[in-house]
Design a protein that fits this description.
The structure is a single chain. Helix content is 83%, strand content 0%.
């Protein structure tokens, strides 16, 4: 899917749009706008959508970036230094299931209702997929890598940077893909509860005004942006892990 245009997937999406439009025409209700009407609402309000999606992406990107910068080295450290990892593991497992929305009241108390609160909530939700995948990937690394590091007389920091990080990257990138999707989702939900702008607040206002076509247009825009982000992350993964995919290709042929 990352190396060629997915024709079958595009055709399936087109069929879904046709079915949607046909069913809406059959129902003929103002409460169920067709695909064409939703697209017209998206185009007609494109200026507002551009501004609102910009706010949402800014918060989602900031939250994800902070989670990545903090949790990636922390995960590698906890995975390599087993004693400290075992010490903090109960705390991680205790707080990890907490839904990010449950953190919103706490964020409001300490950070108010500005961007800092929304970004902190996004960071909370995006942090754990990266952290857990990094810890597990380092712990599951091949024992031969440890022998190589010792034979090269690498320090613990050098071992984590030069050995553990490259070996763990395939599993870490899987966590990154999850975190990217979660970041956008949580940013929209946090805006519904804390914001005066962004796609989350746009959807709330559309609901309050009973503007169903505009609300569906907002959802369609979020879905399209999420799809674009997913393909972008896949392309980055293919580039960063070219050696990994090449090795898998060799194994598949043998």
């Amino acid at each position: 899917m990352t190396q060629r245009f997915n024709i079958l997937g595009a055709v399936f999406l087109l069929l879904l749009a046709i079915v949607w439009q046909a069913f809406a025409a059959l129902v003929d209700s103002p409460n169920f706008p067709g695909f064409v009407r939703v697209v017209k609402a998206l185009v007609g309000d494109s200026g507002t959508f551009a501004v609102e999606i910009g706010h949402t992406l800014k918060r989602a990107g900031a939250g994800f970036g902070l989670a990545f910068v903090v949790m990636l080295p922390l995960g590698i450290f906890l995975g390599r230094v087993r004693a400290i990892g075992d010490l903090v593991e109960p705390v991680i497992e205790m707080v990890r299931p907490l839904p990010p929305i449950a953190v919103v009241p706490l964020a409001m108390i300490f950070l108010g209702t500005g961007d800092a609160a929304k970004i902190s909530v996004v960071m909370w939700g995006a942090a754990f997929p990266i952290l857990i995948n990094a810890i597990e990937a380092v712990r599951a690394s091949h024992p031969m890598l440890a022998n190589v590091a010792r034979s090269l007389r690498l320090t613990r920091a050098e071992r984590m940077w030069l050995v553990d990080l490259p070996a763990a990257m395939p599993q870490i990138m899987a966590g990154v893909r999850i975190s990217v999707a979660v970041s956008l989702l949580i940013a929209v939900v946090a805006e519904m509860m804390l914001s005066t702008n962004g796609m989350g607040m746009y959807l709330v206002r559309a609901q309050e005004r009973f503007e169903i076509a505009n609300g569906l247009a907002g959802l369609l825009l979020i879905a399209l942006v999420a799809l674009a982000i997913n393909y972008t992350v896949l392309a980055i993964e293919r580039s960063v892990l070219a050696w990994h995919h090449a090795r898998l290709g060799v194994h598949a042929r043998t």
